């Protein structure tokens, strides 16, 4: 049967991308086979709504019932100690009625985008909510700041907005600071806690329909115009008059309600989640509705990345804390000449601390002791460490020239999944992007008793690789075929071996400051190798390595890695180098969250054009012609800029795709078209026939990188113009990577410069 012809542009198309995590692109989607697991709870919710509606005789009675439900809502269930929650739950105190119009007018008059050094966080709070312990920060404060940030593109001004908001929160209600930080970063807990709201696009549609009273056809029209669930909610409520005025929402109320939504479980969990979200939306006003719905969809669209929020948190603390300023001055090698220099120094400490403890709750706790608390941040078992990365290289000659006469080791670069195994405070397995995948690898967890005979607590950095019964290596696709969640040990069919290449923590001590040679010696001294005998038993092996540094030895080892189905090799400096110009270069210590020149990756296709493949995100396409008229071709690919959250168009790709892949692509995106390009897309005016949500990462190779007048990728780094990839070719989909892991403009520019140096 011939594949269906792709439709050019469906302004009203609904559907959700093929991803486990619901996003705003699922908004207004129709139920499908993928939604079958929610049908029962949805049906229960529909019956509940019908029953409630039958008892409502007028809009006034309906509004009053919602208000009563809100007032009588039970206190949120306390989270376990491991999950950050507000340090106290606020209860209302009698106070004169709050004039919300005055509150909104006051917030609208505030310039959150001004330089924080000139901003005064002490403001009039007469019309703010109040608690037994003092002022409660209204959620309207964040909503106003979000609306400003959403219109900005420059990171500096967005950082100013975030910093000034956090200074106000810290000034009036410091106990809600963590709630504000998480709401700004569009999370309610660290990613490795695995806490999800569990509300899909269809559920959010029903909530908006219920609370606004609008018809579904009207919401579909709004979706076709805006393509954003938050904008739909904002417009749907524009002419809605509330018969009963709600008390202003507070930060802690929103944050605790989101936690209550995430904790709902059981047969009626769907109805419970939707009921809580409906109460939240019914109590919201104006811009609050837009950003509450976007929060439920997990996409605030304010261009504030995790690094921006982290920097804002640290800066807010330093600007208003004299102790921290004194600590920075004392720790500095030279007098701090300006506020800007002081803030940059604080940023560096914040990034260092977060790389070791990627948990905003831990960062907030550290700051209680001033900025010096960040200097004491160390890794601990049970909290993932942001991994160190290798630099991109084009040739052996470039690597050997960089290493010079220094000792180094070559290791196989396995085609598997990079993981961290933590033992101590339990047994935990984390992915390279800091997510908990413990229940995916019960066979790795089963290694803990064997390994604990030799070490009571440890953290290893390793690659989980699928292996055959004869221990030969299998491709990544075999490993990807394993189930991802709640895997039972007895059900495992694909056996795994853990190839360990680094030891980060041992017996209660961080090893990050040791050289690689020292860490390797400790690894081999404390952990014997283990060969698996069944699929239910994982192996534990040292990564294959070679310490010979001659060019012939390295090339021979590289060829061996390719023959063993590896991606290539890693070349790593072993020892601490001598100082150069007063500073250490190419450190052999473990540097979390850094792409170091002490590590280089040499992949087996390094001689083919550019030095490394690119990880790009498909964001749009044009209808094919001729033989490809039934498919989407070419496809527009983009880089990801972590500083701005923008996707920068880099090239069109037409090569490397099979007809079978094109058919799958048609099916995947058949109901996931966007009505227009997202404001997160920088395309330099390119207009695709269809736009897709950013949900996939593809590995792409090309002949070389050139300066381009057409594409905006990495513009301003090498040239005022952007860069583009010539003769791009699709290699494979990287299901192990998120879009946030895609190639960045800085990496792309570095590849261009390395290519130019060789030429």
UniProtKB/TrEMBL annotation:
Organism: Malassezia vespertilionis
Cell compartments where the protein resides: Nucleus
Sorted UniProt keywords: ATP-binding, DNA damage, DNA recombination, DNA repair, DNA replication, Ligase, Nucleotide-binding, Nucleus
Any Pfam family hit: DNA_ligase_A_M
The EC number(s) this enzyme carries: 6.5.1.1
GO cellular component terms listed in the entry, alphabetical order: nucleus
Lineage: superkingdom: Eukaryota
First-level EC class: ligase
Segments for region (Disordered): 1-23
Major location category of this protein: nucleus
Name of the protein: DNA ligase
């Amino acid at each position: 049967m011939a594949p269906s012809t792709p439709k050019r542009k469906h302004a009203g198309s609904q559907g959700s991308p093929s991803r486990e995590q619901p996003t705003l692109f699922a908004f207004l989607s129709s139920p499908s086979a993928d939604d079958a697991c929610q049908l029962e709870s949805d049906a229960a919710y529909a019956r509940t709504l019908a029953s409630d509606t039958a008892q409502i005789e007028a809009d006034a009675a309906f509004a009053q019932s919602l208000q009563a439900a809100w007032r009588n809502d039970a206190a949120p269930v306390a989270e376990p100690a491991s999950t950050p929650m507000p340090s106290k739950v606020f209860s209302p105190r009698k106070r004169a009625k709050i004039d919300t119009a005055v509150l909104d007018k006051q917030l609208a008059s505030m310039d959150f985008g001004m330089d924080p050094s000139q901003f005064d966080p002490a403001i009039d709070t007469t019309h703010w909510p109040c608690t037994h312990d003092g002022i409660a920060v209204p959620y309207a404060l964040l909503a106003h700041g979000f609306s400003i940030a959403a219109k900005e593109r420059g990171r500096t001004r967005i950082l100013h907005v975030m910093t000034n908001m956090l200074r106000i929160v810290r000034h009036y209600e410091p106990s809600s600071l963590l709630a504000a930080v998480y709401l700004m970063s569009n999370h309610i807990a660290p990613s490795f806690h695995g806490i999800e709201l569990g509300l899909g696009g269809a559920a959010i549609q029903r909530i908006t329909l219920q609370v606004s009273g609008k018809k579904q056809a009207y919401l579909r029209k709004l979706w076709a115009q805006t393509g954003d669930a938050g904008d739909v909610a904002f417009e749907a409520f524009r002419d809605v008059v509330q018969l009963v005025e709600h008390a202003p929402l507070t930060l802690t109320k929103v944050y605790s309600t989101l936690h209550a939504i995430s904790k709902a479980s059981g047969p009626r969990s769907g109805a419970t989640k939707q009921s809580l979200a409906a109460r939240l939306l019914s109590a919201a006003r104006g811009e609050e509705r837009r950003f509450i719905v976007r929060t439920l969809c997990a996409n605030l669209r304010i261009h504030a990345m995790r690094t921006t929020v982290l920097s804002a948190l640290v800066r807010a603390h330093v600007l208003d804390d004299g102790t921290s300023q004194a600590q920075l001055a004392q720790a500095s090698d030279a007098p701090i000449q300006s506020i800007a220099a002081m803030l940059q120094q604080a940023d560096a400490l914040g990034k260092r601390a977060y790389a070791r403890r990627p948990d905003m709750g831990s960062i907030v706790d550290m700051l209680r002791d001033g900025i010096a608390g960040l200097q004491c941040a160390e890794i601990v078992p049970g909290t993932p460490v942001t991994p160190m990365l290798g630099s991109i290289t084009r040739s052996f000659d470039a690597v050997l020239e960089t290493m010079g006469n220094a000792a180094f080791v070559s290791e196989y670069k396995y085609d598997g999944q990079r993981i961290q195994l933590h033992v101590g405070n339990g047994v935990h397995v984390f992915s390279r992007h800091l997510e908990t995948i413990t229940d995916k690898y019960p066979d790795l967890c089963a290694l803990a008793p064997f390994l604990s005979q030799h070490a009571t607590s440890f953290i290893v950095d390793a690659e989980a690789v699928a292996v055959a019964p004869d221990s030969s290596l299998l491709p990544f696709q075999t490993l990807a075929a394993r189930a991802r969640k709640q895997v039972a040990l007895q059900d495992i069919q694909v056996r795994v071996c853990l190839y360990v290449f680094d030891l980060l923590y041992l017996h209660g001590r961080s090893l990050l400051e040791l050289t690689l040679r020292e860490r390797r010696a400790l690894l081999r001294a404390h952990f014997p190798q283990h060969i698996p005998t069944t699929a239910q038993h994982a192996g534990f092996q040292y990564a294959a390595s070679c310490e010979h540094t001659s060019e012939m030895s390295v090339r021979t080892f590289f060829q061996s890695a390719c023959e063993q189905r590896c991606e290539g090799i890693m070349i790593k400096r072993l020892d601490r180098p001598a100082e150069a110009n007063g500073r250490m270069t190419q450190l052999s210590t473990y540097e979390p969250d850094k792409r170091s020149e002490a590590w280089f990756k040499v992949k087996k296709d390094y001689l083919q054009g550019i030095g490394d493949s690119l990880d790009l995100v498909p964001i749009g396409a044009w209808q094919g012609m001729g033989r490809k008229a039934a498919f989407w071709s070419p496809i527009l690919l983009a880089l990801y800029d972590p500083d701005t959250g923008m996707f920068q168009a880099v090239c069109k790709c037409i090569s490397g795709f099979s007809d079978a892949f094109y058919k799958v692509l048609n099916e995947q995106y058949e109901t996931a078209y966007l009505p227009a390009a997202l404001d997160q897309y920088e395309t330099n005016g390119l207009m695709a026939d269809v736009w897709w949500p950013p949900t996939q990462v593809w590995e792409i190779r090309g002949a070389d990188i050139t300066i381009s007048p057409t594409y905006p990728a990495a513009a301003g780094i090498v040239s005022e113009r952007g860069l583009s990839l010539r003769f791009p070719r699709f290699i494979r989909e990287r299901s192990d990577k998120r879009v946030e892991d895609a190639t960045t403009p800085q990496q792309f520019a570095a590849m261009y410069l390395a290519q130019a140096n060789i030429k």
